[in-house]
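Narrative of activities, Objective 1.

The group set out to show that a structural description can be obtained from nothing but a protein's sequence at a throughput compatible with the screening campaign. Below is one input-output pair from the validation batch, recorded exactly as produced.
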Amino acid sequence: MVDYTERNNARADLIARFGWFSILAGTTNLEKCISGHDNGKGARNLDICPKCGEPDFYLIKGADVHGCGRCWKCFAKGVGDENGKKSWDGFRIVGLANGLSFPDAVKMVEGYIGFEWNGKKAKATKPIKRIEPKVTAISPEEEQRRIEWKRGMINDLCKGAVEFGAPGSEVGLMYLGNRGIKSFSSVSPNNLFLHPSVPYIVTFEKPRDGKLSSDDAEIFECCKQSGVMEKIDYHDPKTKVLPKRIHMGSYPCILQLVRCSQAFSGYSIQRIYLTQQGQKLRFEPHHKGLGSKLQLSIPHEGGGANYLDPPTEIMAIAEGFETLASVRPYTDASCACTINANGIIAFCPPKGVKVVLVLEDKDRSETGERATDALRERLAPQGIVVVRVAIQVPIPPSARKGIDWLDVMNSHGVSQLPQYFTNTSSVKDWSVYANN
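Output recorded for this entry:
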Protein backbone atom coordinates (compact mmCIF):
# COMPACT_ATOMS: atom_id res chain seq x y z
CA MET A 1 0.00 0.00 0.00
CA VAL A 2 1.33 3.43 -0.96
CA ASP A 3 2.06 5.79 1.92
CA TYR A 4 0.83 8.99 0.27
CA THR A 5 1.86 11.18 3.20
CA GLU A 6 5.45 10.02 2.94
CA ARG A 7 5.33 10.31 -0.87
CA ASN A 8 3.91 13.84 -0.77
CA ASN A 9 6.50 14.91 1.80
CA ALA A 10 9.29 13.58 -0.43
CA ARG A 11 7.83 15.45 -3.42
CA ALA A 12 7.49 18.66 -1.39
CA ASP A 13 11.12 18.38 -0.31
CA LEU A 14 12.28 18.03 -3.93
CA ILE A 15 10.09 20.95 -5.00
CA ALA A 16 11.62 23.07 -2.22
CA ARG A 17 15.12 22.25 -3.41
CA PHE A 18 14.16 22.91 -7.03
CA GLY A 19 12.26 26.15 -6.35
CA TRP A 20 8.85 27.15 -7.70
CA PHE A 21 10.29 29.91 -9.89
CA SER A 22 12.31 27.33 -11.82
CA ILE A 23 9.30 25.01 -12.04
CA LEU A 24 6.92 27.71 -13.27
CA ALA A 25 9.53 29.00 -15.73
CA GLY A 26 9.81 25.53 -17.24
CA THR A 27 6.12 24.59 -17.29
CA THR A 28 4.23 27.85 -18.00
CA ASN A 29 4.51 30.95 -20.18
CA LEU A 30 4.49 33.30 -17.17
CA GLU A 31 7.98 34.63 -17.86
CA LYS A 32 7.13 38.28 -17.17
CA CYS A 33 5.84 37.85 -13.63
CA ILE A 34 8.65 35.41 -12.77
CA SER A 35 11.53 37.55 -14.05
CA GLY A 36 9.98 40.77 -12.75
CA HIS A 37 8.97 39.40 -9.36
CA ASP A 38 9.77 41.91 -6.62
CA ASN A 39 8.50 40.12 -3.52
CA GLY A 40 5.01 40.04 -5.04
CA LYS A 41 4.51 43.78 -5.38
CA GLY A 42 1.25 43.31 -7.30
CA ALA A 43 1.15 45.62 -10.32
CA ARG A 44 4.93 45.55 -10.63
CA ASN A 45 4.91 42.02 -11.98
CA LEU A 46 1.56 41.63 -13.72
CA ASP A 47 1.32 38.95 -16.40
CA ILE A 48 -1.35 37.33 -18.55
CA CYS A 49 -3.75 35.36 -16.35
CA PRO A 50 -3.71 31.68 -17.33
CA LYS A 51 -7.45 31.48 -16.58
CA CYS A 52 -9.08 34.60 -18.07
CA GLY A 53 -6.34 35.86 -20.40
CA GLU A 54 -6.31 39.38 -18.94
CA PRO A 55 -3.02 41.06 -17.87
CA ASP A 56 -3.93 40.94 -14.18
CA PHE A 57 -2.07 37.90 -12.86
CA TYR A 58 0.79 38.13 -10.37
CA LEU A 59 2.80 35.87 -8.09
CA ILE A 60 2.34 36.80 -4.45
CA LYS A 61 5.03 37.33 -1.85
CA GLY A 62 7.02 34.20 -1.13
CA ALA A 63 6.03 32.62 -4.45
CA ASP A 64 9.55 31.25 -4.88
CA VAL A 65 8.75 29.02 -1.89
CA HIS A 66 5.05 28.17 -2.30
CA GLY A 67 4.37 29.00 -5.98
CA CYS A 68 1.12 30.86 -5.27
CA GLY A 69 -0.41 33.59 -7.42
CA ARG A 70 -3.71 35.30 -8.09
CA CYS A 71 -5.55 37.34 -10.71
CA TRP A 72 -7.18 40.63 -9.75
CA LYS A 73 -10.12 40.13 -12.10
CA CYS A 74 -10.77 36.44 -11.43
CA PHE A 75 -10.76 36.81 -7.66
CA ALA A 76 -12.75 40.06 -7.74
CA LYS A 77 -15.45 38.23 -9.73
CA GLY A 78 -15.38 35.30 -7.34
CA VAL A 79 -14.27 32.84 -10.01
CA GLY A 80 -10.77 32.39 -8.65
CA ASP A 81 -11.41 31.58 -5.03
CA GLU A 82 -12.42 27.94 -5.27
CA ASN A 83 -12.98 26.46 -1.81
CA GLY A 84 -12.55 29.90 -0.26
CA LYS A 85 -8.85 30.14 -1.13
CA LYS A 86 -7.28 33.57 -1.60
CA SER A 87 -4.77 32.43 -4.24
CA TRP A 88 -3.96 29.57 -6.60
CA ASP A 89 -1.15 27.26 -5.59
CA GLY A 90 1.69 26.30 -7.93
CA PHE A 91 0.01 23.09 -9.14
CA ARG A 92 -3.21 24.92 -9.96
CA ILE A 93 -1.29 27.59 -11.90
CA VAL A 94 0.55 24.94 -13.92
CA GLY A 95 -2.80 23.29 -14.66
CA LEU A 96 -4.46 26.53 -15.76
CA ALA A 97 -1.51 27.48 -17.96
CA ASN A 98 -1.54 24.13 -19.76
CA GLY A 99 -5.23 23.24 -19.80
CA LEU A 100 -4.73 20.32 -17.42
CA SER A 101 -6.71 18.87 -14.56
CA PHE A 102 -5.18 19.17 -11.10
CA PRO A 103 -3.93 15.53 -11.04
CA ASP A 104 -2.33 15.95 -14.48
CA ALA A 105 -0.75 19.24 -13.39
CA VAL A 106 0.79 17.42 -10.42
CA LYS A 107 2.14 14.79 -12.82
CA MET A 108 3.60 17.51 -15.06
CA VAL A 109 5.44 19.07 -12.11
CA GLU A 110 6.67 15.67 -10.93
CA GLY A 111 7.94 14.87 -14.41
CA TYR A 112 9.66 18.22 -14.76
CA ILE A 113 11.58 17.91 -11.48
CA GLY A 114 12.39 14.24 -12.09
CA PHE A 115 10.54 12.96 -9.02
CA GLU A 116 11.07 9.28 -8.24
CA TRP A 117 9.26 7.06 -5.76
CA ASN A 118 9.96 3.39 -5.07
CA GLY A 119 12.25 3.23 -8.09
CA LYS A 120 9.66 4.67 -10.48
CA LYS A 121 10.34 8.00 -12.19
CA ALA A 122 7.37 10.25 -12.91
CA LYS A 123 6.53 10.86 -16.56
CA ALA A 124 5.86 14.43 -17.64
CA THR A 125 2.34 15.23 -18.84
CA LYS A 126 2.21 17.03 -22.19
CA PRO A 127 0.37 20.37 -22.31
CA ILE A 128 -3.09 20.30 -23.89
CA LYS A 129 -3.24 23.99 -24.80
CA ARG A 130 -1.91 27.41 -23.96
CA ILE A 131 -4.21 30.25 -22.93
CA GLU A 132 -4.27 32.95 -25.61
CA PRO A 133 -3.82 36.38 -24.00
CA LYS A 134 -6.34 39.16 -24.48
CA VAL A 135 -4.56 42.34 -25.50
CA THR A 136 -5.39 45.10 -23.02
CA ALA A 137 -2.41 47.38 -23.41
CA ILE A 138 -1.82 50.55 -21.41
CA SER A 139 -1.25 53.75 -23.35
CA PRO A 140 2.25 54.37 -24.75
CA GLU A 141 2.40 57.54 -22.65
CA GLU A 142 1.69 55.65 -19.42
CA GLU A 143 4.17 52.92 -20.31
CA GLN A 144 6.87 55.52 -21.00
CA ARG A 145 6.08 57.30 -17.74
CA ARG A 146 6.59 54.06 -15.79
CA ILE A 147 9.84 53.34 -17.60
CA GLU A 148 11.22 56.82 -16.91
CA TRP A 149 10.24 56.58 -13.23
CA LYS A 150 12.13 53.31 -12.84
CA ARG A 151 15.09 54.58 -14.85
CA GLY A 152 15.22 57.62 -12.57
CA MET A 153 15.28 55.38 -9.50
CA ILE A 154 18.13 53.31 -10.94
CA ASN A 155 20.12 56.45 -11.81
CA ASP A 156 19.55 57.98 -8.37
CA LEU A 157 20.76 54.82 -6.64
CA CYS A 158 23.95 54.74 -8.71
CA LYS A 159 24.63 58.47 -8.22
CA GLY A 160 24.52 58.09 -4.44
CA ALA A 161 26.87 55.09 -4.42
CA VAL A 162 30.64 54.56 -4.65
CA GLU A 163 32.49 52.07 -6.82
CA PHE A 164 32.90 48.72 -5.09
CA GLY A 165 36.41 48.52 -3.63
CA ALA A 166 36.83 52.32 -3.46
CA PRO A 167 36.97 54.30 -0.18
CA GLY A 168 33.50 54.28 1.34
CA SER A 169 32.71 50.70 0.28
CA GLU A 170 34.21 49.09 3.40
CA VAL A 171 30.91 47.49 4.48
CA GLY A 172 30.72 45.70 1.12
CA LEU A 173 34.29 44.44 1.50
CA MET A 174 33.42 43.27 5.02
CA TYR A 175 30.53 41.31 3.49
CA LEU A 176 32.91 39.55 1.09
CA GLY A 177 35.29 38.87 3.98
CA ASN A 178 32.44 37.31 5.95
CA ARG A 179 31.76 35.09 2.93
CA GLY A 180 35.40 33.93 2.91
CA ILE A 181 36.71 36.28 0.19
CA LYS A 182 39.73 38.02 1.68
CA SER A 183 40.85 40.04 -1.34
CA PHE A 184 38.93 41.78 -4.09
CA SER A 185 40.23 43.05 -7.41
CA SER A 186 38.67 46.20 -8.83
CA VAL A 187 36.04 45.72 -11.53
CA SER A 188 34.97 47.67 -14.60
CA PRO A 189 33.64 51.13 -13.63
CA ASN A 190 29.89 51.75 -13.27
CA ASN A 191 28.88 48.11 -12.74
CA LEU A 192 29.23 47.25 -9.05
CA PHE A 193 28.60 49.75 -6.27
CA LEU A 194 28.16 50.18 -2.53
CA HIS A 195 25.50 52.63 -1.41
CA PRO A 196 25.87 53.72 2.23
CA SER A 197 22.17 54.08 2.99
CA VAL A 198 19.21 52.82 0.94
CA PRO A 199 15.69 52.86 2.43
CA TYR A 200 14.05 49.45 2.83
CA ILE A 201 10.38 49.97 2.07
CA VAL A 202 7.76 47.23 2.11
CA THR A 203 4.82 47.99 -0.18
CA PHE A 204 1.31 46.53 -0.18
CA GLU A 205 -1.20 46.64 -3.02
CA LYS A 206 -4.65 47.77 -1.96
CA PRO A 207 -6.78 44.60 -1.73
CA ARG A 208 -10.01 44.88 -3.67
CA ASP A 209 -11.95 42.97 -1.03
CA GLY A 210 -10.73 45.29 1.73
CA LYS A 211 -8.78 42.56 3.53
CA LEU A 212 -5.09 41.72 3.56
CA SER A 213 -4.20 38.29 2.25
CA SER A 214 -2.92 35.90 4.90
CA ASP A 215 0.59 36.31 3.48
CA ASP A 216 0.46 40.12 3.58
CA ALA A 217 -1.00 39.98 7.09
CA GLU A 218 1.95 37.85 8.24
CA ILE A 219 4.44 40.28 6.68
CA PHE A 220 2.64 43.24 8.27
CA GLU A 221 2.83 41.56 11.67
CA CYS A 222 6.54 40.73 11.23
CA CYS A 223 7.25 44.38 10.39
CA LYS A 224 5.45 45.56 13.52
CA GLN A 225 7.35 43.09 15.71
CA SER A 226 10.77 43.80 14.16
CA GLY A 227 11.62 46.72 16.42
CA VAL A 228 13.01 48.73 13.47
CA MET A 229 9.78 49.87 11.81
CA GLU A 230 9.91 53.65 11.43
CA LYS A 231 6.66 54.62 9.74
CA ILE A 232 3.48 53.24 8.18
CA ASP A 233 1.72 54.90 5.25
CA TYR A 234 -1.89 53.75 4.88
CA HIS A 235 -4.07 53.54 1.78
CA ASP A 236 -6.64 55.52 3.78
CA PRO A 237 -4.93 57.79 6.34
CA LYS A 238 -8.23 58.28 8.14
CA THR A 239 -9.07 54.65 8.89
CA LYS A 240 -5.44 53.49 9.19
CA VAL A 241 -6.40 49.90 8.45
CA LEU A 242 -4.70 48.83 5.22
CA PRO A 243 -0.95 49.51 5.00
CA LYS A 244 0.41 50.95 1.75
CA ARG A 245 4.10 51.35 2.62
CA ILE A 246 6.14 50.41 5.66
CA HIS A 247 9.48 52.14 6.21
CA MET A 248 11.93 49.73 7.81
CA GLY A 249 14.97 52.01 8.03
CA SER A 250 17.94 52.58 5.73
CA TYR A 251 20.89 50.23 5.28
CA PRO A 252 24.11 49.79 3.28
CA CYS A 253 23.44 48.20 -0.08
CA ILE A 254 25.49 46.42 -2.74
CA LEU A 255 24.20 47.46 -6.16
CA GLN A 256 24.66 45.27 -9.22
CA LEU A 257 23.85 46.99 -12.51
CA VAL A 258 22.69 44.54 -15.18
CA ARG A 259 23.46 45.69 -18.73
CA CYS A 260 22.25 44.46 -22.11
CA SER A 261 24.89 42.62 -24.11
CA GLN A 262 24.99 44.87 -27.18
CA ALA A 263 24.52 48.55 -26.25
CA PHE A 264 25.62 47.85 -22.64
CA SER A 265 22.91 50.16 -21.32
CA GLY A 266 21.74 49.38 -17.79
CA TYR A 267 18.19 48.05 -17.47
CA SER A 268 18.08 46.38 -14.06
CA ILE A 269 19.65 46.80 -10.66
CA GLN A 270 19.87 44.29 -7.86
CA ARG A 271 20.05 45.56 -4.30
CA ILE A 272 21.68 43.40 -1.63
CA TYR A 273 20.88 44.94 1.75
CA LEU A 274 23.54 44.62 4.45
CA THR A 275 24.03 45.39 8.12
CA GLN A 276 26.80 47.74 9.24
CA GLN A 277 28.75 44.59 10.20
CA GLY A 278 28.75 43.31 6.62
CA GLN A 279 26.11 40.61 7.04
CA LYS A 280 23.03 40.14 4.84
CA LEU A 281 20.14 42.08 6.31
CA ARG A 282 17.63 39.88 8.10
CA PHE A 283 14.60 41.09 9.99
CA GLU A 284 13.34 39.18 13.02
CA PRO A 285 10.83 37.63 13.10
CA HIS A 286 11.84 36.51 9.63
CA HIS A 287 9.56 36.16 6.62
CA LYS A 288 10.46 35.18 3.04
CA GLY A 289 8.67 38.30 1.86
CA LEU A 290 11.26 40.43 3.66
CA GLY A 291 14.33 39.28 1.75
CA SER A 292 17.74 40.94 1.61
CA LYS A 293 17.80 40.95 -2.22
CA LEU A 294 15.47 43.14 -4.29
CA GLN A 295 15.38 43.77 -8.04
CA LEU A 296 14.27 46.83 -10.00
CA SER A 297 13.99 46.53 -13.80
CA ILE A 298 12.74 48.43 -16.82
CA PRO A 299 11.43 46.64 -19.97
CA HIS A 300 14.26 44.98 -21.85
CA GLU A 301 15.11 42.17 -24.24
CA GLY A 302 16.86 40.16 -21.52
CA GLY A 303 20.05 38.17 -21.74
CA GLY A 304 22.18 40.79 -19.99
CA ALA A 305 24.58 40.53 -17.08
CA ASN A 306 26.62 42.48 -14.57
CA TYR A 307 29.96 42.76 -16.37
CA LEU A 308 32.80 42.78 -13.86
CA ASP A 309 35.30 42.95 -16.75
CA PRO A 310 35.21 44.22 -20.34
CA PRO A 311 34.09 41.24 -22.48
CA THR A 312 36.80 39.17 -24.16
CA GLU A 313 36.73 36.16 -26.48
CA ILE A 314 36.59 33.87 -23.44
CA MET A 315 34.03 34.76 -20.77
CA ALA A 316 33.26 33.16 -17.40
CA ILE A 317 29.73 33.55 -16.04
CA ALA A 318 28.09 32.58 -12.74
CA GLU A 319 24.85 33.32 -10.94
CA GLY A 320 26.31 35.33 -8.05
CA PHE A 321 29.02 37.97 -8.08
CA GLU A 322 30.37 36.46 -4.84
CA THR A 323 31.23 33.28 -6.75
CA LEU A 324 33.05 35.29 -9.41
CA ALA A 325 34.87 37.35 -6.78
CA SER A 326 36.31 34.14 -5.32
CA VAL A 327 37.63 32.70 -8.63
CA ARG A 328 38.35 35.86 -10.62
CA PRO A 329 41.97 36.24 -9.40
CA TYR A 330 42.78 32.77 -10.81
CA THR A 331 41.62 33.13 -14.42
CA ASP A 332 42.34 35.37 -17.38
CA ALA A 333 38.77 35.00 -18.67
CA SER A 334 36.55 38.06 -18.36
CA CYS A 335 33.75 37.63 -15.80
CA ALA A 336 30.04 38.45 -15.76
CA CYS A 337 27.28 37.75 -13.23
CA THR A 338 23.80 36.68 -14.41
CA ILE A 339 22.08 37.07 -10.98
CA ASN A 340 20.29 33.69 -11.11
CA ALA A 341 19.94 30.42 -13.06
CA ASN A 342 17.34 31.91 -15.40
CA GLY A 343 19.92 34.58 -16.25
CA ILE A 344 22.35 31.86 -17.33
CA ILE A 345 19.71 30.29 -19.57
CA ALA A 346 18.93 33.66 -21.20
CA PHE A 347 22.52 34.99 -21.36
CA CYS A 348 23.38 36.63 -24.69
CA PRO A 349 27.17 36.93 -25.11
CA PRO A 350 28.42 40.27 -26.42
CA LYS A 351 29.81 40.47 -29.93
CA GLY A 352 33.19 38.77 -30.26
CA VAL A 353 32.73 36.20 -27.49
CA LYS A 354 33.66 32.70 -28.70
CA VAL A 355 33.72 30.65 -25.48
CA VAL A 356 31.48 30.85 -22.39
CA LEU A 357 32.69 29.11 -19.22
CA VAL A 358 29.76 28.45 -16.87
CA LEU A 359 30.71 28.21 -13.19
CA GLU A 360 27.84 25.88 -12.50
CA ASP A 361 26.17 25.57 -9.11
CA LYS A 362 25.85 21.99 -7.89
CA ASP A 363 22.19 21.77 -6.88
CA ARG A 364 20.36 18.73 -5.58
CA SER A 365 17.62 19.73 -8.02
CA GLU A 366 20.15 19.91 -10.89
CA THR A 367 18.93 23.43 -11.70
CA GLY A 368 22.46 24.65 -12.46
CA GLU A 369 23.14 21.71 -14.76
CA ARG A 370 19.88 22.25 -16.65
CA ALA A 371 20.69 25.95 -17.07
CA THR A 372 24.08 25.16 -18.64
CA ASP A 373 22.52 22.59 -20.97
CA ALA A 374 19.87 25.09 -22.10
CA LEU A 375 22.49 27.79 -22.76
CA ARG A 376 24.70 25.36 -24.67
CA GLU A 377 21.81 24.26 -26.88
CA ARG A 378 20.84 27.87 -27.65
CA LEU A 379 24.34 29.17 -28.43
CA ALA A 380 25.58 26.18 -30.45
CA PRO A 381 23.98 27.39 -33.72
CA GLN A 382 25.88 30.68 -33.28
CA GLY A 383 29.19 28.83 -33.12
CA ILE A 384 29.77 29.78 -29.47
CA VAL A 385 31.22 27.01 -27.31
CA VAL A 386 29.70 26.61 -23.84
CA VAL A 387 31.93 24.81 -21.32
CA ARG A 388 30.59 23.47 -18.05
CA VAL A 389 32.94 24.22 -15.12
CA ALA A 390 31.45 21.55 -12.88
CA ILE A 391 32.03 21.05 -9.17
CA GLN A 392 33.59 17.65 -8.49
CA VAL A 393 33.26 17.48 -4.70
CA PRO A 394 30.07 15.90 -3.29
CA ILE A 395 27.29 17.97 -1.76
CA PRO A 396 27.66 17.73 2.04
CA PRO A 397 24.60 16.58 4.03
CA SER A 398 24.47 19.99 5.73
CA ALA A 399 23.82 21.76 2.41
CA ARG A 400 20.04 21.60 1.96
CA LYS A 401 19.87 22.90 -1.62
CA GLY A 402 23.43 22.36 -2.83
CA ILE A 403 26.76 24.19 -3.11
CA ASP A 404 28.41 26.73 -5.41
CA TRP A 405 31.99 27.52 -6.37
CA LEU A 406 32.35 29.95 -3.48
CA ASP A 407 31.66 27.08 -1.07
CA VAL A 408 34.24 24.94 -2.88
CA MET A 409 36.88 27.68 -2.84
CA ASN A 410 36.36 28.14 0.90
CA SER A 411 36.47 24.41 1.69
CA HIS A 412 38.98 23.03 -0.84
CA GLY A 413 40.79 25.99 -2.38
CA VAL A 414 41.95 26.85 -5.89
CA SER A 415 43.16 23.30 -6.57
CA GLN A 416 39.57 22.35 -7.50
CA LEU A 417 39.50 24.74 -10.46
CA PRO A 418 40.30 22.92 -13.73
CA GLN A 419 43.42 23.94 -15.63
CA TYR A 420 41.45 25.04 -18.69
CA PHE A 421 39.82 27.66 -16.43
CA THR A 422 42.95 28.91 -14.66
CA ASN A 423 45.03 28.96 -17.86
CA THR A 424 42.67 29.60 -20.76
CA SER A 425 45.47 30.67 -23.10
CA SER A 426 46.88 27.12 -23.07
CA VAL A 427 43.71 25.66 -24.64
CA LYS A 428 44.01 25.22 -28.39
CA ASP A 429 40.70 23.49 -29.07
CA TRP A 430 37.76 24.35 -26.81
CA SER A 431 35.51 21.83 -28.55
CA VAL A 432 37.28 19.15 -26.49
CA TYR A 433 35.40 20.49 -23.45
CA ALA A 434 32.13 21.28 -25.22
CA ASN A 435 30.38 18.10 -24.08
CA ASN A 436 31.65 17.84 -20.50
